[in-house]
Structure formats: C-alpha cells, structure tokens
Fold 1-deoxy-D-xylulose 5-phosphate reductoisomerase.
Amino acid sequence: MKKICILGSTGSIGTQALDIIRKNKEKYKVIALSANNNIELLTEQALEFNPKFIVVTEEKNRKNLKDRLNHTNIEVLCGVEGLEMVSSHDEVEIVLTSVVGMIGLKPTIAAIRANKTIALANKETMVVGGEIIKKELKKSKSFIIPVDSEHNAIFQCLQNNEKNTVRRIILTASGGPFRGKNKMELKNVTPEMAVKHPRWNMGKKISVDSATLMNKALEVIEAHWLFDIEYDKIDVVVHPQSVIHSMVEYIDGSVMAQLGVTDMKNPIKFALDYPKRSYSVTEYLNLTKVSQLTFEEVDFETFECLKLGYEAGKIGGSMPTVLNAANEEAVKLFLDGKIGFLDIPELIKASMKNHNVIYDLSIDKILDIENKTRQYINELIK
Ligand SMILES: NC(=O)C1=CN([C@@H]2O[C@H](COP(=O)(O)OP(=O)(O)OC[C@H]3O[C@@H](n4cnc5c(N)ncnc54)[C@H](OP(=O)(O)O)[C@@H]3O)[C@@H](O)[C@H]2O)C=CC1
Ligand SMILES: CC(=O)[C@@H](O)[C@H](O)COP(=O)(O)O
Ligand SMILES: [Mn+2]
C-alpha cells in the first residue's frame, strides 16, 4: 500500500485525489490530510479515511476538530509546523502538495529533506523556491513527479529521451474565459466571470490566474526548474480545446505530445502510481468527439501577466517571488471586489519595479520578500 499525505485535501486537487483513493482503498493508505478553513469537509474526510494526522491553519480550528474527533485516535495539528511535521513523517511515502499558494514552500522542503516522493500540484512553491528546491533535491533521495497537467505531460513526453536533444518545450494554454477579448472588454469583468474556466473545474485562485494568463507565467517558471530548461526554449501556444496537455520538440523535428481528457484525476493518478501505469478512473479520450484541435498565438499585449512571468523568470533570484506574492495578493483583492481585473498586472508590474533583486536566496529571505511585497500592494491600493 502506498502511504500518502495530502496537503490541501479539501481543495479541487485534494478532493479529486481522495476520489481516486476511495475507489482504490486496497492500494493507498492516507496518513495525513490538511485544510485551511473548511473544517466541515476535513471532519468528513478524517472520519472516512481515518488518517493518523490532520492539520489546520488556526489554533481555534484545531481545538474545534479535536473535540469533534475525540472518539478517534486522529491527532490534530496546526499551522505550517504541522504541515512540515506530516510532510516529513516517517510513515509517509508520497506527499501530494495541493495547497494553494507559496504557503507550500516549507512543507515541501521538509518533505524533500525527509526523502519523500513529491506529487507536485502546488506550482507557486516551485516558482518562488525552485533554486533552493533543486539544491535540496541534490542532497536527498526525494524526487518530484509533476501533477500540473502541462508538466505532467512534458514529464511523460521526456521519458527515455536525452534531455540534450530537446529543442524546446511547448506549453499549451486554453486562453482562459477571456480568450479573444481586448483590454477595453476586460475593464469591468467580475470575479464570477473570471473564475468560469472554459475547460477545467479548479479552485478560485488558479481560475483567476488562468483568466489573466498568470497561470501560464507560473507554469513557464515551474517548467524552467522542473526540466532544467532555459526560458528561450519554453514556448506557449493557445490551444482552446485543452486536449493536448503540452509538447516537447526534439532537435530532429519530432514533436511528442501528451493528450487526454480534461480531468485532473489522470495526472494525479499518474503521480500516485508512478512508475507504474494503471487503469484510468475517468472516461477515455474519444478523438472523434473532439473533432478539431486548433492553435493560436498568445496575445501578450492584452494578457501582460505572461510577459511579466518571462521577465521575472529571466531576471531570476528573488524576482519570481515578487511576481508570485504580488499576484497572490492582487488575486485575493480582486476576488474580494477591492480592485478591478486589469489592476492585477498593474500591481504586479509596480511591485517588480519597486524591488531590488537579490540572488543569495534562503527560505527566510523568500518569506520576508513575500511579506514586504504584500504590504507594498496594500499600501498602493489605500
Ligand atoms: N485545481 C486544479 O485543477 C489544478 C491546480 N493546480 C495547483 O494546485 C494547487 C491547489 O489548487 P486547487 O486545488 O485548485 O486549490 P483550492 O483552492 O481548490 O484548494 C486549496 C487547498 O489548500 C488549502 N489552503 C488554502 N489556503 C491555505 C493556507 N493558507 N494554508 C494551508 N492550506 C491552505 C485549502 O483549504 P480550505 O478548503 O480549507 O480553504 C484547500 O484544501 C494550486 O497551487 C494550483 O495552482 C495545478 C494544476 C491544476
Ligand atoms: C489543469 C491545469 O493544469 C491548469 O493549470 C490548466 O492548465 C489551466 O488552464 P489554462 O491553460 O487556461 O491556464
Ligand atoms: Mn496547468
């Protein structure tokens, strides 16, 4: 049985992972689950999967959950320390990092230091900590299997091929809910409109990121670190059907693509079962129903976040942390109705301009830059 820790079990990725586990209880054992505020769902999950540990963010929720679960042996932990404790626990083999945001950084590093297999959905962690994570991986037996659909696709397309024969990788982007629109048309779009992704059913934050194309910006940086590939060899193409999850072009002109239905259970299951393959828990792809696969160039002028992502990635050092922290804060403000959709790239641009890059990164410095960036944005919008 594979022993699994799910960080962020109440979210879109977390609940889909538990759906897989529910149907394959003889294959997987849940050791730990975690949530931020959704203690109702976490209670249900704990009672169903009987993990050794659950983790919540706030002490008051920990006490509440302890009372609810006092007839069980489940230990209730709290905060980032709780996440670090479970992600590095002796009994855990695989850590599925499906929290949203750079809060995943410390628990992911703890898991690497404890030699765990990481099923990585939480892209923000790779964006801000890519350099440190690579160094930690070199000292450890841990390895990362990407869950993000594009990176999972690239990982599969790279199997058995020499890395030095890769000409470029091509990330596909759906284009999001506002594909084809111009800036004027985006001025008054609402959070409700922005979270309506045309192809995927995801958490609110990543859905807004898809709408601004920041999701693709984060994915470009994620790909740079995961596959050791320079930014000028990472391209993005808009592919509205989201059937091709990404591609690798080799120097001989061959292009390998990974196709599949738009269901995250497939990459999640791939990561949990790696290196084996097992029967799909979703429908299989029916190409005659897809009928057409189309491709378009990215509109970098309207969707400036992708341009900012390449810029931050190429500058390197602390700049991707600023890009990510500014985006996390701006998306929160947008979802709370405090700023407009087009303010998101403006606030990120201002934060990057205001930042003096440093290159000797540490976890503490990253977290300090995160705090300062969030404060700067809140000053700006006062
Ligand atoms: N959803 C998808 O299809 C895809 C997601 N990803 C990536 O996977 C990650 C998760 O995305 P998704 O599942 O959509 O997100 P959701 O918002 O649906 O879920 C996020 C999870 O993290 C928890 N969480 C939120 N904030 C905190 C915090 N401050 N501390 C601890 N836990 C927290 C949530 O708890 P609670 O429920 O209590 O709020 C929830 O369990 C993201 O990094 C995203 O970019 C990548 C590819 C596809
Ligand atoms: C499912 C997944 O991996 C998401 O990151 C998805 O790719 C979002 O779609 P966009 O291509 O619109 O960003
Ligand atoms: Mn993706």
Summary: The first helix runs from residue 12 to 23.
